[in-house]
Amino acid sequence: MESSTFKRAYVWQLPVRLFHWINAFSITILIITGFIIANPPALMSNKEASEQFWFGYVRQIHFISAYLMVAVMVLRLYYAFFGNRYANWRVMLPLSKSGFSKMWHVIKYDLLLQNEKEYNFKNISTGHNAVAAFSYFIMFILAVVMVFTGFGLYAPTSTWFLPRMFEWVPAFLGGDFVTRTVHHYSMWAFILFVVVHVYLVFFHDWLEGRGETSAMFSGYKFVRTESIKDEEAANAEKKTA
Fold it and tell me: Which top CATH class is 3-38+53-240?
């Protein structure tokens, strides 16, 4: 494919890129501090436990990161309705036969690494690929679960209204142990998502050479002109339908 058939297109708006990196930072801190909270290390020193507050700082960092993640979730939800078409909530769900077909293509050839006889450029998405888009939707649901269970566990020792809004969650789930277990396994789901996400980003960057990695810094991708025309035609049909 000649380079002349590609066009530099602005895909990811600045707020969406900022949300992505702030969310990545907050989730990383939440995972690290979450492991420490779940299994605190025994720190030997000549100080009494009552004279140390290191674990309190770990919990404080954990909660601040949680507030940051919630703020980003709210702002990203706003852009799911008022951002450009690549950030819109509709791209997160495979609502058409074409969407399911593209999702199966990614699973079959990108994740399961089956051989493809002829690479079909029509299966390349300008924004998120079908699996990535749907996985973001699942991750949003998991993030909601994390917020409910995390603030539910925090509520008894919190004096702020936001965590105390979720103090009913442990009783609803059957106690603190179940709530903590759900919170813990949701964290592992996030870790799995991060591993697959990073793999697919570098895989597509190598396979397609369209600036997949740098796009989340610059906002721009190299997109086939035919793909842009197809998208514009599809959007025009939706508006007239």
Answer: mainly alpha
